[in-house]
Amino acid sequence: LKVVQEYERAVIFRVGRLLSGGSKGPGIFFVLPCIEGYTKVDLRTVSFDVPPQEILTSDSVTVSVDAVVYYRVCNPTISVANVENAHHATRLLAQTTLRNILGTKSMSEILTDRESISKAMQSMLDEATIHWGIKVERVEIKDVRLPKQLQRAMAAEAEASREARAKVLAAEGEHNASKALKEAADIIHTSPAALQLRYLQTLNQIASEKNSTIVFPLPVDFLSSFMK
User: Fold this and answer.
1) Cα angle 76, 80, 83; round to 5
2) Distance of CA 129 to the CA centre of its chain
3) Residue 77: other Cβ atoms inside 10 A
4) 24, 89, 165, 214: least buried by Cβ within 10 Å?
5) 169-201: per-residue pLDDT in tens?
6) Rounded to two decimals, what is the model's pTM?
7) Which of 186, 185, 195 is nearest to 223 (CA)?
């Protein structure tokens, strides 16, 4: 008399042959002594880390990538009868699949397109492990490690790009400011009273700063007589 938990199943062999009717459980089941043997199979989801893999990308850059895989046993009978160790086989297949998929990608695709890579890896693993009674539920790329020299080169490239954009923005600002100043000068030139008001506004700003600057007002008309 044997008992298996809610999340377990028992695959029974009678005189070396697989017992018909599939796996037993959960609950109580009978095993004939000396004639039948059984193997417990856990149906809960299992997660494992794929060790970091040194991969040469399609653009000849060496990166180190690791991932995490979530899977469960969906068919206890097949997982026992069709493969010696379904869990170990799934782990080894995950490593080779990760290398095969990332070997066809460029470095930029690995860094920016992790979601599609994870889905492609999950699809390939699920297609292969379904014959072992394994269902791959999820695959996630954990970390992508770049060589130190490449990191410094990418940082320098990004800094140079930011500096170039800053210079372009500054030049555009100077260009727009010069246009605005030219328009203001044309307006003031057509109206002498506007220039006098601007002069008085400047004096007001200087006086409000509470500094020791001494201002001697000089009429603009007086200067214009010398310019003639």
Assistant:
1) 125
2) 27
3) 19
4) 214
5) 989 988 888 888 888 777 777 777 776 777 777
6) 0.65
7) 195
Residues in the chain: 228
Residue 109 has, within 13 A of its CA and on its CB side, a CA count of 13
Q: Is the pLDDT of residue 108 over 90?
A: no
Give just the sign of the alpha carbon dihedral 183, 186, 190, 192: positive
Token output for 60 = 């000849």
Backbone angles phi and psi of 40, in degrees to 5? -80, 140
Query: What do you get for the CA distance between the two ends of the chain, in Å?
Result: 121
Asked if 67 contacts 123 with a C-beta cutoff of 8 angstroms, the reply is no
Taking only the tens place, the pLDDT of each residue in 19-31 is 887 788 888 888 8
